[in-house]
C-alpha cells in the first residue's frame, strides 16, 4: 500500500505479522523481517509482532 491513499471512511483490518516479522507502526506499513543478534550477543528481548529483537550491547564472555 506504499504511496496509496486510504479514504477517511475506509475500513482497514489489521492482522498480526507472521512469525519472524514485526511492524512497530499502527498504520498500513508492511511487516518487516526481525533482526538477529550477533553470535556472541545476549538477546534481551525476542522479536514480537510489534517490536524487533533487542540485543545486549555487550558481548557474552566465553571461557577459553
Structure at a glance:
With 64 residues, the protein is mainly beta. It has strands at 21-22, 32-33, 41-45, 54-59.
The rounded Rg comes to 17 Å
Distance from N terminus to C terminus (CA atoms, Å) equals 51 Å
Sheet with the most strands, sense and barrel status: 2 strands, antiparallel
- What is the percentage of strand-forming residues? 15-25%
Order of helices and strands: EEEE
Percent helix among the residues? under 10%
Could you say which structural class the secondary elements and strand pairing correspond to? mainly beta
Q: What does this protein structure show overall?
A:
With 64 residues, this protein is mainly β. The protein contains no helices and four strands.
In terms of topology, how is this protein built?
Layout: E1 21-22, E2 32-33, E3 41-45, E4 54-59
Antiparallel strand pairs: 1-2, 3-4
Keyphrases for this structure?
single chain; two-stranded antiparallel sheet; rod-shaped; mainly beta; 64 residues; 0% helix; 4 strands
Amino acid at each position: 500500500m506504499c504511496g496509496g491513499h486510504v479514504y477517511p471512511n475506509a475500513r482497514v483490518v489489521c492482522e498480526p505479522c507472521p512469525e519472524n516479522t514485526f511492524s512497530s507502526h499502527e498504520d498500513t506499513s508492511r511487516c518487516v523481517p526481525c533482526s538477529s543478534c550477533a553470535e556472541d550477543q545476549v538477546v534481551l528481548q525476542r522479536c514480537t509482532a510489534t517490536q524487533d529483537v533487542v540485543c545486549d550491547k555487550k558481548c557474552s564472555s566465553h571461557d577459553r
